[in-house]
Amino acid sequence: MAEDNWALRGDLLDFTGEPAWADLQPPALRWRPAHWLLIRGSRIEAVQAEPPGPDWRRVDHAGRLILPGFIDTHVHGPQIDVLASYGTELLDWLENHTFPAEARYADERVAQAGAERFIQALLQNGTTAALAFSTVHEGATHALFDAAHRQGMRLITGKVLMDRHVPDAVRDDVPGAEAASRRLISRWHGSGRCAYAVTPRFAPTSTQAQLAMAGALLREDPSLYLQTHVAENQAEVQWVRELFPGARSYLDVYGGNGLLHRRTVLAHGIWLNDQDRAQLRDVGATIAHSPTSNLFLGSGLFNWRLAREAGVRVAVASDVGGGTSLNLLRNLAAAYQVQALLGQRLTAWSALHAITLGAAQALDLDHEIGRLEPGATADITVWDWSADPVVAHRLSLARSLHERVFAWMTLGDERLLRSVMVAGQERLLRQRAV
Ligand code: GUN
Ligand code: ZN
Question: Are 227 and 199 contacting, i.e. CB atoms less than 8 angstroms apart?
Answer without folding.
Answer: yes
